[in-house]
Automatic annotation (TrEMBL):
InterPro entries assigned to the protein according to its UniProt record, in alphabetical order: AMMECR1 (IPR023473), AMMECR1_dom_sf (IPR036071), AMMECR1_domain (IPR002733), AMMECR1_N (IPR027485)
Residues of the AMMECR1 domain: 1-196
PANTHER family assigned: AMME SYNDROME CANDIDATE GENE 1 PROTEIN, AMMECR1 HOMOLOG
Superkingdom classification of source: Eukaryota
Pfam family, one: AMMECR1
Protein known as: DUF51 family protein
Phylogenetic lineage: Eukaryota, Fungi, Fungi incertae sedis, Chytridiomycota, Chytridiomycota incertae sedis
Amino acid sequence: MTETSVCTKEHCLYCFDVLNSYLTGEKIKKPTFPNKKYPLFVTWHIMVRGEEYLRGCIGNFKAMEVHQGLKRYALISALHDSRFDPISKKEFPKLTCAVSLLHDFEEVEDIMDWEVGVHGIWIEFKDIDGEKLTATFLPEVAEEQNWSKKKTIDSALRKGGYSGAKITDEYRKTIKLTRYKSDKKTVTYEEYLKYKENKEKDNEKK
């Protein structure tokens, strides 16, 4: 069953609320959007001298209620992505937040049976010492990087920790690949600021 338009900007605004609360101590209200279960990812970008850079991206492939899931991963991706230092209060006004709700997971027999720009990939594989490893790329990554399917798979192997000197066609055939789709929305800090101002005006009228 295919699901579309499950993600809204409200999901992103809530992630901004969660991070703002952590950085400032400001209290937040419980979200009002439906609390359905989805695998999800939260991604933070930062604008530096007109260029946008990744600042954190972590999620979970286990379906979880989005209220708790977004509250958890808004902070994990902002503060505990091992590739980056924790996001600071000073950086907050330069952020953009994206939420991806994942659906339509399908394990494929042919690891090339997916479409760049449409599917994300989740791979499971063994390193040269036999250790079981995993890696994923969300649907937009291969398209943004202008990668072929082969390049995307090889990049996922390296991301996941594959330590072999060379990736051969024979080795690629041992990979277990699951394709999936994602409904994604993005909100800038400026949009979040406007949202907060409107909330304050509504509270004043009450």
